[in-house]
Design goal:
The structure holds two protein chains of two kinds.
Chain A: H1 8-32, E1 39-45, H2 49-65, E2 69-75, H3 79-89, E3 98-102, H4 106-112, E4 115-116, H5 118-125, H6 134-139, E5 141-142, E6 145-146, E7 149-154, E8 156-161, H7 162-168, H8 179-192, E9 198-200, H9 206-215, H10 222-226, H11 239-254, H12 266-275, E10 279-285, H13 289-295, E11 300-304, E12 319-326, H14 331-344, H15 347-357, H16 370-378, H17 383-391, H18 406-421, H19 426-448
Parallel strand pairs in A: 1-2, 1-3, 9-10
Antiparallel strand pairs in A: 3-12, 4-12, 5-6, 7-12, 8-10, 8-11
Helix pairs in contact in A: 2-15, 8-11, 18-19
Chain B: H1 9-18, H2 27-58, E1 61-63, E2 69-72, H3 76-83, H4 85-116, H5 123-130, H6 138-149, H7 155-162, H8 174-202, H9 206-215, H10 219-230, H11 232-247, H12 251-256, H13 268-277, H14 282-307
Antiparallel strand pairs in B: 1-2
Helix pairs in contact in B: 4-8, 4-11, 8-11, 11-14, 13-14
Classes of the chains: A alpha/beta, B mainly alpha.
Pfam family, one (chain A): SBP_bac_8
Family (chain A): Belongs to the bacterial solute-binding protein 1 family.
Main location (chain A): other
């Protein structure tokens, strides 16, 4: 028996594996080959459902508008999951050239140094950003330098069932209501409907708590919500948060408050109840508006996010997501990414985007387009979120929280909200939340070497 | 090629003395063994053992924003976890869930299998009905049960309204949320468990029951003293896989409660996922994964040590 024979079997297996790998590779390169000489700009996004369709309109519009670049959109699932994908693939061939990352990941993205600040392209191109909403811009800028460009931008607003208010003869809340204005309306809805309709809810969603603080001009962490340095301590146990929860508790006592919990269906159940006329008032992103208008049999009322009594509203921070440019791609690809960003900010594009999705048009000139004028004629209340956005003067409190680990912080906030809704002591819940966020902050700052 | 190895004779002799039929591997055997076992060992090593040791390694560091290990902290992650009330409550919650799911799955499975093992006309319909959840995927089950638990339009809510009972907030009340998850999981597992039990009960020799009938023994006594002992290997198998399976339960929690309310359904596996892919804290979640591994290994050991003795093979 030849001594080489025993190598035959492993060799055959190895060869077979190599053949499969190489033919597989050949096939995949064949399908991925470009059809023309355009530079491909891979774009990762997290818009699902109807919003994805509207986003495809933007992408198609861009691809048709010029011949140099082609944006290739790729859906990445939820905002939360996408962050880890973006961070883990950076520097590999699968990473995107331009990606959509949501509001609370801003600090993470800035610190990662994985992106080219948009400011660089703005300066090189002399691109005029003054038309773009300043509150939205300031959210994604670091010490005056634009890091990313806001794209889908929403505001928390308060929705109410206007038909219901008319039916029971209740005076609608003012456009910028205080907590007690809302308490009055919620109580009247509950009483006048013979306890058949619940007055209001506040979803167990950290974003709403953060907005309550922003609107009261109070920060969630030290170092001005991270705008003047890395946050090291949480300050949720503050006057604004307490007032917010006392307001909720007062409505719980009145019986007009209902909680839909925090499960996977909480948001859907809340919307369904509102549409069915079982719930009078709730707070949610302005991005829900197009959905509400499509399915609502009742007249929709919208006001600004409510603020504490005896003070002026500071304005809420924006929600949504921004477009970031990865720095691991060649110069021309990055330029292509910026061209796409510029296109996405055009007045008509933004106007159509607002009409389709409910996200707010960021370009001031969008308000003058026929698209939005027609929309406001049909739904006058659709103007309210845009007004709230335009009225807010950016400051450290309403420009988002530049803190890493915001996803975890949201969960801690939600835990606090749940325990308060279930009757727990307000101050204790807030103190607990502070403690938990502090622990996370300490670990994060130690691990990243921020001192 | 057929030559026996002459090295290590001394220790092998001892073995041979104990066990005459013990095989000794020749070089040729080793060669073939490595060809046949090699690929799967390689794959196991790459996809199972490497991640396992990597997890252990990461759990002793702090990880930064990108999930890279930066600072060696030894057992600090473990100490923090074990002393954190949040994590301890998660362990309790998991335990309650595992015990609840295992108990109800086995009890219901046995009950249904015993009912369906009767020789009656049309029994095939019931056998099909009882095992039908085997074909239901987690996502479908979650959506289906979410409709049932819906607080304003759900089946349970409508039922309680019809009977003028107070409405139960299935998913916003911590205790009820746990029940909701247990009910859903049991429902999911039931089809498979029922089928396995049915097969086991069918294979019990009928002569035993005939003899018992002749003696005039009650059906109840027959079940506990004939059926149960005879199907004990199956019972052991099912209890082991149900316990391990429910420790690892993830899909239903993610789709129904997302660990809430107030962490009432935040089981260990969900917490691991959450800390890694939402919190970005890979070190913490690695430490949690190691703890979960130890717990599952411990339970499996207990089962083999104590339960297996009671099994009739």
């Amino acid at each position: 028996m030849s001594k080489y024979k025993k190598f035959a079997l492993p060799l055959i297996i190895l060869l077979a594996i190599l053949v499969v790998v190489f033919t597989g590779k050949a096939f995949s390169t064949k399908t991925a080959a470009a059809k023309d000489n355009r530079t491909e700009v891979v774009f990762w996004h997290e818009m699902g459902g109807p919003a994805e369709k509207s986003l495809m309109k933007v992408v198609d519009g861009f691809n048709k508008s010029q011949t140099k670049y082609r944006v290739v959109p790729k859906y990445q699932g939820s905002y939360d999951a996408a962050i880890q994908k973006i961070l883990q693939t950076h520097g590999t061939s699968t990473s995107p050239a331009v990606f959509q990352a949501f509001d609370i990941s801003a600090a993470q993205m800035m610190h990662s140094k994985f992106t080219t600040p948009v400011q660089k392209f703005i300066d090189a191109d002399n691109f005029d950003v003054s038309k773009i909403s300043p509150v939205a811009r300031s959210f994604y800028s670091d010490k005056g330098k634009q890091q990313a460009m806001p794209f889908n931008t929403s505001q928390t607003v308060l929705y109410y069932n206007a038909s219901l208010l008319e039916k029971y003869g209740i005076t609608p809340p003012p456009v910028s209501p205080t907590y007690s204005d809302i308490t009055r309306v919620a109580k009247e809805i509950y009483e006048k409907s013979n306890h058949q309709v619940k007055g209001m809810t506040v979803q167990i969603y950290g974003w709403l708590l953060e907005q309550a603080m922003a609107n009261a001009g109070v920060s969630l962490t030290n170092n001005n919500d991270g705008h003047t340095g890395i946050p090291t301590k949480a300050t949720i146990n503050n006057k604004a948060a307490k007032e917010f929860f006392e307001w909720i508790r007062e409505n719980q006592k009145n019986g007009d408050f209902i909680s839909y919990g925090s499960g996977a269906m909480a948001g859907t159940n809340q919307t369904t109840s509102f549409l069915n006329g079982k719930l009078g008032i709730y707070m949610q992103s302005s991005a829900s508006m197009s959905q509400l208008n499509k399915k609502n049999k009742n007249k929709l009322g919208i006001t600004y996010f409510p603020h504490p009594d005896g003070q002026k509203a500071n304005g809420v921070a924006i929600g949504g997501a921004a477009l970031w440019i990865s720095n691991d791609k060649p110069k021309d690809v990055q330029q292509g990414a910026f061209e796409f960003i510029k296109y996405s900010l055009k007045p008509e594009v933004q106007a159509q985007w607002q009409k389709d999705t409910g996200y707010l048009a960021l370009n001031k000139d969008s308000q003058q387009t026929k698209i939005l004028k027609d929309l406001y004629k049909k739904h006058p209340e659709a103007r309210v979120p845009s007004q709230q956005l335009q009225e807010a003067v950016p400051n450290n409190f309403n420009s988002g929280i530049l803190m890493e680990g915001m996803q975890k912080t949201r969960q801690i906030e939600q835990f606090a909200m749940e325990s308060i809704y279930n009757g727990g002591d307000i101050v204790k819940a807030l103190k607990d939340a502070d403690k938990k966020i502090d622990e996370n902050l300490t670990t994060t700052n130690r691990a990243n070497g921020y001192h | 090629m057929l030559k026996t190895s002459t090295t290590n004779v001394v220790p092998e002799k001892k073995v041979e003395a104990k066990n005459k039929t013990k095989f000794r591997l020749t070089a040729n055997d080793k060669y073939y063994a490595s060809i046949f076992a090699g690929p799967s060992l390689f794959l196991l090593g790459l996809f199972t053992f490497y991640p396992m040791f990597r997890t252990l390694y990461i759990s002793m560091f702090l990880t930064n924003t990108f999930g890279n290990t930066t600072l060696f902290v030894g057992l600090e992650n473990y100490v923090k976890l074990v002393t954190s009330p949040d994590f301890v409550s998660s362990m309790w919650v998991t335990l309650v869930y595992v015990v609840g799911v295992t108990f109800f799955t086995i009890a219901m499975g046995l009950l249904l299998a015993n009912l369906a093992s009767q020789k009656l006309p049309g029994i095939a319909i019931f056998r099909t009905l009882y095992s039908v959840t085997m074909g239901v995927s987690v996502s479908v089950a979650a959506i289906f049960w979410l409709f049932i638990f819906n607080p304003s339009a759900g089946f349970f809510t409508l039922l309680t309204k019809l009977l003028h009972l107070p409405t139960v907030n299935w998913l916003s009340n911590p205790t009820m949320a746990m029940w909701a998850i247990i009910i859903t999981t049991v429902w999911m597992h039931l089809g498979f468990v029922f089928l396995v039990f049915l097969g086991a009960i069918e294979s019990v020799p009928t002569t035993l029951y005939e003899a018992a009938d002749v003696e005039g023994v009650s059906k109840h006594y027959q079940f506990f003293h004939i059926t149960l002992p005879m199907i004990s290997p199956t019972l052991f198998f099912i209890s082991t896989i149900t316990i391990i399976g429910s420790f690892k339960s993830f899909g239903l929690i993610d789709l129904i409660t997302k660990g809430g309310p107030t962490n009432a359904t935040n089981m260990l596996v969900y917490r691991i996922y959450n800390d890694a892919f939402f919190g970005g804290n890979y070190a913490k979640s690695s430490a949690e994964a190691i703890i979960l591994t130890i717990i599952i290994a411990f339970f499996t050991y207990l089962q083999f040590k104590f339960l297996e003795k009671k099994v009739n093979y």
